[in-house]
Amino acid sequence: MKRWLSKSLKHKLSLLLLIAIVLPLLATGAVSYNIATSATEEKAKQSGMNTLRQIADKLEFVIQDVENMSLFIIGQREVQAYLDNDREDVARYTLNVGFLTNLAFSKKYISNITINSANGYPPLSSTTVLYSGLPDVLRKNEEVYRNSTKWWTPLYENQTTEGLKKVVSLVRPIRNVNNFKPLGELSISLDEAEIARYLKESGWEAKGFVLLLDANNRILSGGESAWLNRPVSEPFPDIGLMAEASGVLNYGQGDEQKTILYHTIPSLNWKLVGFIPTQIYTAQNVYVLTVTAVAVGISLLLAAGLVLYFIQWVTRPLTRMTQTMKDINPDEPIPTYEVKSSDEVGLLLHSYNKLSDRIQRLKEQVQLNEAKKKEADILALQAQINPHFLYNTLSSIHWMALMNQDRQIAEMIGALSDFLRFSLNKGEEFCPVQQEIAHAQNYAYVQSIRFPGQFEMEVYIDPAMLQTPMLKLLLQPLIENSLIHGIQKKQEPGFVYVHGELSGARMKFVVEDTGVGIEADKLRELRRQLAWTGNGGPTAKTSYGLRNVHQRLLLHYGSEAGLTIDSEPGKGTRVSFSIPVLEEPA
Asked: Which end of the chain is more exposed for a tag (fewer CB within 10 A), N or C?
């Protein structure tokens, strides 16, 4: 593959353009598929939530209707008269039973309406109830029921002449409308089968189902009959909390995975819980994936054909030019190429033709530059020889002074010769600490002969760091600065102290003098000059040596290695710097 690409520009352009088209198309297809599947799922969830709200509105209407009906029944004069009579009244019994029967008959969702008398009179009922589970429910929930003006029961069973029915009842006490004397209790029962019909006919997904839960998350209606009146966590373990008024949960894994939507009926805190199998989304997503794959495939075929045609059309002139240039001799003038078009390729060929003359002139210029470079190398070699000649001459003078027994001149010439030899240092920028100290001492010795009795210098260097490499010519400029600007401006003799100590991975050097010191304003200006990082510009002569050392430290060791200057007028100046310990110079 690599060899195939390297042999032809056409191959490279074809591959790159195909990749440039294929990748965006595939990415667009993937993004479109993800957006479509997300939109499908979101639409199904939104549609399901709207369906739950519609069911909730219908149940809310039924609940409100039952509660309004209960108030209507309690306030009926004949009902009050029957319950508050001092003896049984058969006529009123018959009249009230007919009233309740007509009232329940008009509402399909009402299973029965029953009024129990506190005086033990025969109960009034719209339907003949052979057995009722209501008394057991009231006994189990007596504390809650007694403290409420109205109370909705859990799901229970009634045996009537029409068969066994599961019902949920609104129970509320009946009191005398004049003196609030307890007269009995009213129960209006909702038929669970009718509620289940509402849930099934709501337009929910065919493979899904809707459950109605009470405030304690027990199933009131919907789903399989075996689930009724059981906590929803039994048929659906780990269903999770449904703490919000409405929301979405994911339940199960694999083929059994379901999306759960829930919505709360505010008046009773009942919940409608809808289950949508994830397979519904999967089936829709397969269709979306198929359409996306077909669209992307057709686009890829069209794009590939257009790319190949375009590459062939563009590279044809370049291919012809390649054939022409293949046998060019580099030592001969570059031949020109016939230009037949004015587009970018034609301009390229035209520019190529103009290069021939330009390349010839450049070849001549290169030859001239090479000659000048050799001449510069010779001059540089001569400049190197001159310093060597100087310190070799000094060595000769040194031996002549020794032969004439002029020891002081011999020692001064020897120190100056060593000073110059160290400055050259074979072109190296780094030297051991011991050599840097020797260089500084040579300088101090020469100066002590020039200015006898004006200063003394004390040196203390940690022996552990003597062989450690450091940048050369750092201490001598600092000592020179102390002598010129500190000691020599003072009437009495002074001292220069040079210290070097090893602290962990760094070496700290201090040059301290007992000279005249630096005034506060001048010290601030000096520090400003050292901190200035601009290119060029004026610099005070008094700070040239310090600035040179400071810049070399920053260049070789970084921002933490710059000079630190402290001074007090009349007492002296202290200059210090800290550099890292390097096994080998950078």
From this structure: N
State how far the alpha carbon of 362 is from the alpha carbons of 111, 335, 359, 365, in Å: 109, 17, 5, 5
Structural contact between residues 56 and 342, judged by C-beta atoms closer than 8 angstroms: no
First to last CA, the chain: 44
Q: What are the tokens at 480?
A: 């020179």
What is the model's pTM?
0.48
Phi-psi region of 234 (alpha: psi -120 to 50; beta: other; left: phi over 0): alpha
Same domain, 458 and 341: no
Three-state DSSP class for residue 463: helix
378 & 457 share domain: no
Structural domain boundaries, residue 373 = 328-383
More confident of the two residues 6 and 47: 47
Which residues fall within 8 angstroms of residue 173, CB to CB, at 6 or more apart? Answer: 149, 182, 184, 185, 186
Q: What H or E segment, with its residue span, contains residue 468?
A: none
- Shared domain for 463 and 567, answered yes or no, is yes
DSSP 218: B
User: Is the distance from CB of 349 to CB of 317 less than 8 angstroms?
Assistant: yes
CATH number for the domain spanning 503: value is 3.30.565.10
Is residue 17 predicted with pLDDT exceeding 50?
Answer: yes
Residue 495 lies in a domain: yes
Q: Which residues of 303-325 are buried (b: 16+ CB within 10 A; e: fewer)?
A: beeebeeebeeebebeeebeeee
pLDDT for 537 equals 46
| Most confident region among 80-94, 390-404, 510-524, 526-540 by mean pLDDT | 510-524
Closest among 578, 422, 561 to 502, alpha carbons compared: 578
- C-alpha 162/C-alpha 108 separation (Å) is 14
Nearest alpha carbon to residue 113 among 94, 128, 93: 128
Burial of 416 (0-12, 13-18, 19+ CB in 10 A): buried
Q: Give the chain's count of helices (H) and strands (E).
A: 14, 19
From 383, 408, 430, the end of a domain falls on 383
Angle at 72 between CA 68 and CA 77, to 5 degrees: 170
Q: Are 460 and 473 in contact (CB under 8 A)?
A: no
Split into its structural domains, the chain has a count of: 2
Q: pLDDT tens for residues 314-327?
A: 666 667 667 666 66
DSSP bridge pairs for 261: 248, 274
| Tokens linked to 561 | 């290695």
Model confidence pLDDT, tens digit, residues 531-581? 875 544 444 444 567 888 898 888 888 888 889 999 999 899 999 999 999
**Within a domain: 368:** yes
Does a structural domain hold residue 188?
Answer: no
From its phi and psi, is residue 45 left (phi > 0), alpha (psi between -120 and 50) or beta?
alpha
* 473/552 same-domain check: yes
